Predict the structure.
Amino acid sequence: MAQDPQNEVPREDRSEPIDRMFAVTTPVHWLMLAGLFLVFIGFMAWACFGTLSRTVTVTALYHPGASNVGEMIALVPLSSGKTLDAGMDVVVNLTGYNLQEYGNMRGKVTYVDDYTATVDDMRALFENDIIVNAFVQSGPCMILICALEKDSESANGFFWTNDKGKTLKLHDGTFASLTVIQETVHPITLGIPQLQAFFGK
């Protein structure tokens, strides 16, 4: 039965303006998106091409006459010494010399003892009971020796990151902070270990 047109209920007009159906992005929103995109790109560049280093820092002594394989001698705690190997890179900061002014020296680990150093071993190396006693107080240690990188243009014969360091006269028995770089990795490989092979690790 046909419905009377006069009694027909008018349908609600559901049409909406296009700017209400779809949110219009303003220039400010585009700038925010562009900024977030740049931050993401920067983070990914750092993760792929930047590096992070795992290090061990110990006290060392400049004592060139004690060994034929290096000039810097350190006693490393057993827990750290077992993670170190010959060939690892080293950064050396001499005690008492401002890093910003003099820079630091570079070198490589040339020897890591397999056993705990005895007091007699320390005396044979340092020939100084005061130094030996200072190291003994830190507990069981292993002997580590580092060879410094040479530089024929330096007055003291060693490479320095700052030219002023090249003018220093080094004295036997000078203490230093020695940082051994155990491993250098790209940050992204920490989250995705499978990529280590791609980056040559």
User: Anything to note?
Assistant: The longest strand covers residues 52-62. Residues 52-185 form a domain with the Elongation Factor Tu (Ef-tu); domain 3 fold (CATH 2.40.30.170). The helical segments are 18-21, 27-49, 78-81, 99-102, 119-126, 129-136, 187-191.
